[in-house]
Amino acid sequence: MTLLANTRALFGFGSGDVWTMFHSEAFDFSVWEMWGALAHGGRLVLVDYFTARSPEAFLELLRHERVTVLNQTPTAFYQLAEADRLAGGAALSLRYVIFGGEALDFGQLTRWYARRGTSSPDLVNMYGITETTVHVSHLPLDRVLVRQRSASVIGRALPGLRVYVLDQRLHPVPPGVVGELYVSGDQVSRGYLGRFGLTSARFIPDLAVSGARMYRSGDLGRWNDSGQLEYLGRNDLQVQVKGYRIELGEVEAALLSGVGVSQSAVVARRDRLVGYVVPESGATISPAALLEYVSQRLAPHMVPAVVTVLEGLPLTVNGKLDRNALPEPDFGRQATVSRGPASATENILASLFAEVLGLEEVGVDDSFFTLGGDSIMSIQLVTRARSAGVLITPREVFERKTVAALSETAGTAGNRVVVDELPGGGVGEIELTPIVEWMLDRGGDFRRYSQSVLLSVPATLDEVTLTLAMQAVLDHHDILRAGIRATHHPESARRMDVAPVGTVRAETVVRHGSLGVLPRRRSRQNSTQLWGGSTRRQV
Asked: What is the pTM of this model?
C-alpha cells in the first residue's frame, strides 16, 4: 500500500483503467500489475502463457480488451513494438506504458516515437527491486529525452524513498562517477526470512537517517548533470576478459546502433565476448560488416569475437533476457569457402590461423577476428609465424586481418637482420616502465602494490624442482630482477635497477607454507623489490 500511495500523484490511476497481468506471479512486477488495478477499482486482464509469448497475439489482446495501463520489461516491449510496426500501428487505448525489470535502451524508443509521435500512450521508465517493493524511481519519457540520452536514465526516487550512489567505502560519489545504488525509505523490506547472514549483508544502517536501514542493490549507477539517476547495469554484468573489465551494456549499445539491428545481447564465453543480434523485419545483417562497424566505435578489447544472428532473443518466464539460453557460438561456421593458398607464405599463415583459432581450416579471405581472434591470440599468431619463418607484426594482423592480405606484406626470416644483445644488456639502471610510472604518480607507499596468481601444479612437484624452475625464469627475464629504491630524495625514488643474472636467488622467493597460513614477507625500510616473495609461493 505504501508503493501505491507513493505513486498515486504521479499517474492518476482510476476505476476506468484496464491493466494486464502479463508477468508471472513469481515476478515482483506482477504485484504492481495486480494491486495497481484492484486498489484503484480498475479491471485486470490475465494474460495466458501462450499469448504472453506471442507479440502478435498480445498486441491483439491489447486492442480487444482496450487496455490502458501496460507494464513491460524492455526486452518484451521491443518485440511488441516490432509487431506493432508490422501491423501498421493501429490505434490502441493505452494511456501508459511502464518499463521495469531491466535496463531500458533509449535507442529502441526512437523508432517508436518516429512511428507514433508523442501522442498517447505516455512512456515511463521505472527502476525497482523486489526488496524495495517493486519500484524505486520514476521518469516520464519523451522524444527529446530518448534522443539526447544514451544511458538508461531512471529519473529520481519516488516520494518517500531515498537513493544513494556510494563507492566501496560507502562514501557518496560526485555526479558522473559510477557507484552502487542504495535505497532507503518506507518501501524497504525488513530482510530475508530465516537468512540472517544475507540480511545483514544487504540491509545496512542508513547513512543519513538514524535508526533506518538502506538496501544494497548490487546495481551500478551515477547521477547525471540533470540531477537524475542513470542505471548502468548489475555488478554481475561487468565481466573480465583477458584482464579487461568490460560493461556488457556498452558493447550491446554499439551493436544495436548498427544498421538493421533491432535487438542485441552480449555474453562472455571462454574468455571471449560473443554478440547476438536480431535483425529488423526484412533486414539482412552481415556479422563481418557489423563487427567492422563496432570496431570503429569500441576499444579493441570490447569488440566481440563473433556475432551470431538470431530470429529472436530468448526470454525468461518473467520476460527478461535469458542469457543462459543464448546458443554457443560456432566459430567454424564463420569460415568461408574460398580459393586455396596460392603461395608458401599463404599456406603457412592459413595453417597458423586454424591452429591458433582451434579450427580445422580457414579461407584465405577470412578475417582473423571474425573467426574468433582477439588481441592476445594475434600475439600468439605473430610468435608462431616467426618460428615458421614468416615475419608479421600484431599491428599488421589488426589492419590486414586475412591470410591473403598479410601474405602481401609478410617478410621472411632470411631477410631479417638479428642484432646480438650487447654484453650486460638489460642490467643496471633502466627507464621506469609505464605501470611503475603510474604507481609512483599515485603517491604514498608503493610497497602496498602487489600481484598474485594461483596455479595448479602436478602433485609430484617438489620444492627443489620448483626452485630450479623459478631460478631459470628469474635469470631469463631481466625485469623480474628489477627493483625500486624508495628514499627521501625525489630523483632517486624514480629509478629502477636491474640486478645481474644469478644475483636474485630463487631460494629467497619460493616459500613453502600451509594453505591459508602463509609467512609474512619482511619489508625493507627504505626500499622494495619487484621480485618480492609475496607473489611466488609454493603452497
From this structure: 0.54
